[in-house]
Amino acid sequence: MESRTEPKQESKADSKTESKPETKMEKKEKNKNLRYTQNRELSWLRFNSRVLEEAGDESVPLLERLKFVSIFTSNLDEFFMIRVGSLYDMVAADKTKKDNKSGMTPQEQLQAIYEAVAPMYKERDKIYTDIKKQLAAYGICGLDMKELEQPEKKFVKKYFKEQILPVLSPQIVDTNHPFPHLLNKQIYVIASLKLDNRTMMGIVPIPSYIPDVLYLPGKDVRYIRMEKIVMEYLELIFGHYHVLSRNYICVTRNADISPDDEAYADNEDFRFIMKETLHKRRRMAVVRLEAASALSKEAEKVLCEKLKIRTECIFKTENPMRMEFVYDLMDKVPASMKRSLTDEPFSPQPSASVHEGGVMAQVKKRDILLSYPYESMEPFLQLVKEAGADPDVMTIKITIYRLARKTRLVEYLCAAAENGKEVTVLIELRARFDEQNNIDWSERLEEAGCRVIYGFEGYKVHSKICLITYRNKNDIQYITQIGTGNYNETTAKLYTDYSLMTSNRAIGEDAAAFFKNMSIGNLNGAYQHLIVSPFGLKKKILMLMDEEIEKGAEGRIIMKMNSVTDIDFIRKVSEASQEGVKVDLIVRGICCILPGIPEATENLTVTSIVGRFLEHQRVFMFGEGESRKIYIGSADMMTRNTEKRVEVACPVYDPQIKTYLVHCIDIMLKDNVKARVMQSDGTYVKKPSAKTGICAQETFMKEAIQAKRVKEEEPKKSFFEQVKGFFRRKRK
User: In what order do the strands lie in the sheet with 582-587?
Assistant: First the structure.
């Protein structure tokens, strides 16, 4: 645990003496108290508030605003399951341990979280109610039972009796019927029941296999949520009982289980351990209870006692507790109406840097960078497909963290193995909430003849690297792909990421060494070009920052990431700022360093972009001009990434690609539409309005469309000529 030293009190005698300039060592010592940091959990909540702001932004189309409410809700669910869950574990393990950035104990952090979340619930309810009201004008209506027209009521009652009632499993709670186990994120209708002179609680689980909403017949999109229907017909469910009151609730359970805590049995398949872990997650402690309306004192007492929670863990919400139905709802809206309620459709464009013909042949000649979701993932998938059929290719090796439910990548890897290629897949079974999906894919890959290995005890493999080894006459050659995001064909259309494909021999040799080290369990390998955690990445990044610190005011550091929590990195940023280095951090989510703190972070700017796509690239830039060093990779500057995960970052050597990346980062820093700038107290504000609005994501969409158009018009121009033309048009 990091010690927190208090600033020394200056005596009156000391104040009269002339102060001497602080040495570097004195500055470092002074800033050990980390007055320029903030708690990571509260920082994350501020990020989710920025998501909610998008839901409240009236310039955003209505159905997109509804989608942001859904994203905010699912984000908050995961936050309680993982982050709040882990704090509960910390309270049980060592309640005196303090956070090294805020000095708060686990219990103090929990208290601060519950206090911060309460107003967010009220704001979400207000925004959701407003969106619902505006959508009703378009005939898109989420209804209560009392709002149904008479024919609709008959339809709902008939549907309930025929389709819902037969599959319900209601129960009462009394001496002979113990309080049931409530599943994580399942909705339960509860009632106060009376029979003769006895009162008791009734509970009705809403089964997960019935739809979340029932769509009503008619031209308009009118629907009612299933829990409201069940709540309406409690008298039919409980028969001879008298229903005194009704409500519905949803519990959130701690899901922060790590299989590293499990005992590894000899010769036991790790997949079995993961399956046991997933089963255990269903029964973890409750960390939150949501209720549709205020609970009676009696119900609150029973629920707090049975679920072992305190009243501050209970949140009343008018918002749906499960919002997966939003995406289905958007599909129900007629195309003619959808145009005015959603963003203008955009599909990933064919990459301007990839021409007709084989992708492998093109990568052998020059590096290719793909920018998702503005450009399609197709060239990378085509590369793997070609490699699987190429007689010169000997091996394909890849690390996988998350995959889509349906994925061509696995098909191509399996086909390669069936074609006699040696295919090695390092698949991380502990990718949170994707565990079962990865277990299923690992079994499919093994069946096809692929060699499947898993991560390391205590270390997740989060890298995104693929290596193709082929024979060119008597020489061994490599094609290496390094990405900032997962090999997920679904999220590649939703997340902003970079994918670099290169035939650089030195990088390929490093990649070959990396896969060899992964196969023999060596985390501390030596690499000449790639930088790899858990032992090399942080050290190299801090060294590159030191090079900029040596330049003083001439130094420049720009880094784009998802989160910043690593204390060594935070200290180095402060050190750079104190030496006059201009530092820009573009951080979507958690950022535990505060900018603008006197004598600590005065030269630091922190920007966050929340927009149509999820910002996900990791880009590290050091210096300026021709000597600028640029890396892309899979790691955030979080302690879990730098010390507890296998991550890979790769240098970008191609001059045209470097120029393109500098252009992209410059546009992000100029964004004055979706970007927000962190203040010294950790809050965020939008940039002042300007005559010309610059939205980075819209700019990149337009550039991708324009690049495709130019490519179609100038098919014979070289990639270098196209890049020159692109920037010539930009200047005009």
Answer: 531-532, 648-651, 629-633, 619-622, 556-561, 582-587, 604-609, 675-678, 684-686
The predicted model scores a pTM of 0.88
Q: What's the angle, vertex CA 455, arms to CA 80 and CA 652, rounded to 5?
A: 90
First to last CA, the chain: 55
Sign of CA dihedral 631, 632, 634, 640: positive
Q: Which residues are CB-neighbours of 664 under 8 A, at least 6 positions away? A: 371, 696, 700
Condensed to tens digits (0 to 9), the pLDDT of residues 392-440 reads 999 999 999 999 889 999 999 999 999 999 999 999 887 777 788 888 8
Q: At what angle do helices 85-94 and 106-136 cross, to 10 degrees?
A: 170
Q: List, by residue number, the catalytic residues.
A: 462
Amino acid at position 193, single letter: L
* Amino acid (1-letter code) at residue 342: T
Distance CA 541, CA 549 (A): 12
Question: How far, in Å, CA of 42 to CA of 7, rounded?
Answer: 24
- What pLDDT digit, counting tens, does each position of 341-365 carry? 999 999 999 999 999 999 999 999 9
**Is-contact 203 190, C-beta < 8 A?**
yes
CA distances from 547 to 299, 339, 363, 540, 579 (A): 62, 51, 32, 11, 12
**Residue with token string 């997740």:** 460
Q: How many residues does the chain have?
A: 732
DSSP 8-state class, residue 6: P
Q: Which of 546, 731, 562 is nearest to 629 (CA)?
A: 546
Do β-strands 171-173 and 198-205 pair in parallel, antiparallel, or remain unpaired? antiparallel
**Residue 640, H or E segment:** helix 639-643
Q: How far apart are CA 501 and CA 201, in angstroms?
A: 61
pLDDT at residue 728, rounded to an integer: 63
CA atoms in the 13 A half-sphere facing the CB of 619: 29
Comparing CA positions, the residue from 274, 278, 268, 317 lying closest to residue 295 is 317
Q: How far is CA 639 from the centre of its chain?
A: 17
Phi-psi region of 471 (alpha: psi -120 to 50; beta: other; left: phi over 0): beta
Angle between helices 62-79 and 325-332 (to 10 degrees): 170
| Nearest by Cα to 117 from 253, 263, 289, 255 | 289
Which residues, including other chains, have CB under 8 Å from residue 608's CB and lie 6 or more apart? Answer: 47, 50, 586, 587, 588, 589, 591, 675, 676, 677, 678, 684
Cα(405)–Cα(497) distance, integer angstroms: 19
On whether the CB atoms of residues 414 and 444 are closer than 8 A, the answer is yes
DSSP 625: G
